[in-house]
Automatic annotation (TrEMBL):
<dbReference type="InterPro" id="IPR000847">
    <property type="entry name" value="LysR_HTH_N"/>
</dbReference>
<dbReference type="InterPro" id="IPR036388">
    <property type="entry name" value="WH-like_DNA-bd_sf"/>
</dbReference>
<dbReference type="GO" id="GO:0003700">
    <property type="term" value="F:DNA-binding transcription factor activity"/>
</dbReference>
<dbReference type="InterPro" id="IPR036390">
    <property type="entry name" value="WH_DNA-bd_sf"/>
</dbReference>
<dbReference type="Pfam" id="PF00126">
    <property type="entry name" value="HTH_1"/>
</dbReference>
<dbReference type="InterPro" id="IPR051815">
    <property type="entry name" value="Molybdate_resp_trans_reg"/>
</dbReference>
<protein>
    <submittedName>
        <fullName>ModE family transcriptional regulator</fullName>
    </submittedName>
</protein>
<feature type="domain" description="HTH lysR-type">
    <location>
        <begin position="9"/>
        <end position="67"/>
    </location>
</feature>
Length: 103
């Protein structure tokens, strides 16, 4: 329902005011970005993104209050998880091969 890519998309919609602009910032087509927005809107009780059609004033998109809340909760969960798992993350990094010579 929600993962790092969709959270990044919500964040970029918030920052750009545009689904197309958010998609461009993520090297994603408008069609793909809009499809992900539709998935998000369908998964939650309230829509996370509202879209305004184009016209003389131009179109755009914005996070709804529910969208802003979901994004804030997700980012907080990421921070809690990173802090709680810091030792395990370092252990995994220690097991990675050194790829610097392969680049």
């Amino acid at each position: 329902m929600l993962g790092p890519g969709k959270a990044d998309l919500l964040e970029r919609i918030r920052d750009t005011g545009s689904i197309a602009g958010a998609g461009r910032a993520m090297a994603m087509s408008y069609k793909r970005a809009w499809s992900l927005v539709e998935e998000l809107n369908a998964a939650f009780r309230e829509p996370l993104v509202e879209r305004a059609r184009g016209g003389a004033g131009g179109g755009g998109a914005r996070l709804t209050p529910a969208g802003a809340a979901v994004l804030a909760h997700y980012r907080k969960l990421e921070a809690i998880t990173a802090e709680a798992g810091a030792a395990e993350i370092e252990a995994i990094r220690g097991l990675l091969s050194d790829m610097s010579s392969e680049k």
